[in-house]
Design brief:
Chain lengths: ~280, ~425
């Protein structure tokens, strides 16, 4: 019994992993090889993948929009999260309040977030009203092809409290003695940040970077409730395309193939981040 | 003992523990039920107070039954995911409330032989049945509906100087009045119009709709081209249209404050706007040359799934749900599907609702393209895309793009 005990402890996770993660994942791979409708399914081999990669214009369009979204959102999230963490790491009065204040949006559901920002950004919304008081004519943030994606970016960026908290944890793990040595050696604040803080924080940056990339590619809740596909499909993110293919067109095999292609793209981006981190991430050991 | 055996034994112990926590005999409220009582599940896509009313009807039904218990499952906005997922594992609910019969009919039992069991099924508005049927097969019993009609601000209409008789007016009157405003306040329209909704105008212009009656894509029909070109003119030449997204809808506040002359919409927002704006009225659609035009119908109904082990009991519940008393109760949230209820409640004479009832009668015999193909999801997505390209870009050449999309859609239709 003694020898079984450790396995007993880990078995709920393993059961969960096998039945709720691995099995659905492999099953979706199986589905991707079929023309899988509501009631009928026909084996088509790699046909879904070939169609997606060679002739599906919406796939190309959604991939480009999602890359644009990720390439703007991820660096902004990292920079703002790091900036906030640096500010909140200062021992000043009221920092606990600000930690909570910046983190609270993270616990709000994506649906509520989309409704709040929809109200702020709509044509007759709070933001345009505020701008009109300053004599500035507002922008149709949600319904203009040039701005709608930025409206989605702005909304999702608002809840980057998790990144901030992880950075804060990373900053607080840096040994204060290193900073004291720098101070004694006469290093400026900027040099201390560049030569000490950034290198020692680099593993945390890598973690946040990978998580932010994955989150960006999986974004669906906010975009679905804020703009949907958007004007001229300008916010038709990849996850929304997968959702529509499965649940509006009932083409489950094709949607599964789309999901696996997304998995491949995210895996490649993660590998690039991991590989490149050898040159910029610093590990003490 | 090998590691594998230990792991397997651990799994078994945990699984036994987890399953031991469940108890099929107990209801969610803690009460128990006789083992031989038939349990039916009823899934609804609704949420909020509408579901509360549905729960009351379910509770009343359960109180009247010894052998059957219905359990309401409010799927809400996740209806499509939950329903398809449950159908995929052959565990779909017994009864579902839905509107998309084109997509889901393969999962549903035809109810043709059960119609006689319904409490006077001829009392239902005839036009509604075509929206819960595919071909000759009836899959659902209607529970609610709305046609589309025009929201009108009569104060703004008076300023245009165009005299309109709501019961006899033409497309020319409509365009003349809408284009009289060059500040984009003539018509509140959607750039992401659902093809389903805009098809009313295709019919009014004289076309068969987006898909012809012989099953081919019909976007290049001269009447449809005229419709799209008129829209482009209203938007870019006359500058009479404000294009909005259906996702960020502010139609109620814009009409409540008298900002727009026309909008094409269902009855859903009319009561709220009427309370706020005394100049607000609803007109039936204009006819092509005069009279009034038809509309698509947004109809929902109850259906029995193929997975149901108790189809007879399910039909019995549907019969109860759609009887005179319950349809009367549901008028708080739905337009009545029974003519007798509409007459007894005088709702069809209310100026706010009358245009919808009149349009419902005008629309009998017009078949939505949604019901002409089982691939409507893919087809509608393409038509929506084309509509946006036409409405949002004045340089889009309508005959060229309609022909291009006809080709794409015909490939899907086969």
């Amino acid at each position: 019994m003694k020898k079984i005990t450790p396995y007993l402890f880990i078995s709920p996770w393993i059961i969960g992993f096998l039945f709720l993660f691995l099995f659905p994942m492999l099953f979706s791979l199986y589905m991707s090889l079929f023309d899988w409708g509501l009631t009928d399914r026909t084996f088509v081999g790699l046909h879904n993948f070939i169609t997606i990669l060679t002739s599906d214009q919406q796939f190309t369009s959604s991939i480009l929009i999602t890359f644009k979204y990720a390439f703007i959102l991820v660096p902004l999230n990292i920079l703002i999260g790091l900036g906030l963490a640096l500010l909140l790491n200062k021992k000043v009065k009221g920092s606990s309040f600000f930690k909570s204040a910046y983190y609270i949006p993270t616990i709000i559901s994506g649906v509520a977030l989309a409704f709040i920002w929809g109200w702020i950004l709509s044509d007759n919304g709070v933001l345009n009203y505020g701008l009109s008081l300053l004599g500035i004519s507002g922008i149709d943030w949600l319904d203009n092809t040039n701005y709608s994606l930025f409206a989605v970016i702005l909304t999702t960026m608002w809840s980057n409290g998790t990144i901030m908290v992880i950075f804060l944890g990373g900053l607080q793990n840096i040994d204060q003695e290193v900073y004291e040595s720098c101070s004694i050696d006469g290093a400026s604040s900027l040099m201390t940040f560049r030569k000490i803080t950034l290198p020692l924080l680099s593993p945390t940056i890598l973690y946040n970077l990978i998580m932010a990339i994955i989150a960006a590619f999986q974004q669906i809740t906010v975009v679905m409730n804020l703009t949907g596909k958007g004007p001229m499909n300008s916010t038709y993110l990849y996850s929304l395309l997968v959702y529509d293919t499965a649940f509006k067109m009932q083409n489950f095999g094709y949607a599964a193939a789309l999901s696996w292609i997304m998995f491949g793209i995210v895996a490649i981006l993660t590998m690039i981040a991991m590989y490149s981190s050898r040159k910029w991430a610093y590990y003490e050991n | 003992m090998s590691k594998f055996k230990k792991l397997m034994m651990s799994f078994v112990l945990v699984l036994v523990g987890v399953t031991g926590c469940g108890n099929n005999a107990d209801n969610s409220d803690g009460s128990s039920q006789p083992a031989d009582k038939v349990q039916l599940t009823f899934a609804t896509p609704d949420s909020g107070p509408n579901v509360e009313m549905q729960q009351q009807i379910v509770d009343d039904y359960n109180a009247s039954q010894d052998q059957v218990e219905v359990v309401l499952q409010a799927y809400g906005s996740a209806f499509d995911q939950k329903f398809t997922a449950s159908a995929g594992t052959s565990s779909a609910p017994d009864i579902v409330k839905l509107w998309n019969y084109s997509a889901y009919s393969p999962l549903l039992k035809p109810l043709n032989d059960d119609l006689d069991k319904l409490d006077n099924y001829k009392d239902f508005y005839p036009a509604l049945w075509q929206y819960t049927s595919i071909g000759d097969q009836v899959y659902g019993v209607p529970t609610g509906w709305s046609t589309r009609a025009l929201y009108v601000d009569e104060a703004k209409l008076a300023k245009t100087g165009v005299k309109i008789d709501p019961n006899d007016w033409s497309l020319a009157d409509f365009k003349k009045a809408a284009s009289a405003s060059d500040d984009q306040s003539g018509l509140y329209a959607f750039y992401d119009y659902q093809a389903y909704s805009l098809e009313s105008f295709s019919w009014i212009y004289g076309s068969d709709g987006w898909i012809s009656n012989d099953g081919k894509s019909n976007l290049s029909d001269p009447q449809n081209i005229k419709l799209f070109e008129d829209y482009q003119d209203l938007i870019y030449k006359d500058k009479a249209v404000k294009l909005n997204s259906q996702d960020s809808i502010s139609l109620d506040t814009d009409f409540a404050t008298g900002n727009y002359l026309f909008a094409d919409y269902g009855y859903w927002l009319a009561p709220t706007i009427a309370e706020a704006n005394e100049n607000f009225a609803v007109y039936p659609f204009p006819g092509k040359q005069g009279g009034n035009g038809p509309s698509v119908i947004h109809a929902s109904g109850l259906a029995v799934t193929n997975d149901s082990q108790y189809p007879e009991q399910a039909v019995d519940f549907i019969n109860y749900y759609t009887n005179y008393d319950n349809i009367t109760r549901l008028t708080k949230f739905e337009m009545p599907v029974r003519t007798s209820v509409a007459q007894d409640m005088d709702i069809a004479k209310d100026p706010l609702y009358k245009p919808y009832f009149d349009t419902l009668e005008n629309s009998d015999g017009y078949q939505s393209s949604m019901l002409k193909t089982t691939k409507w999801g893919e087809v509608e997505s393409l038509i929506n895309e084309m509509i946006q390209k036409i409405l949002m870009d004045e340089t889009t050449d309508v005959p060229t793009i309609t022909s291009e999309y006809d080709q794409k859609i015909n490939e899907i239709l086969g």
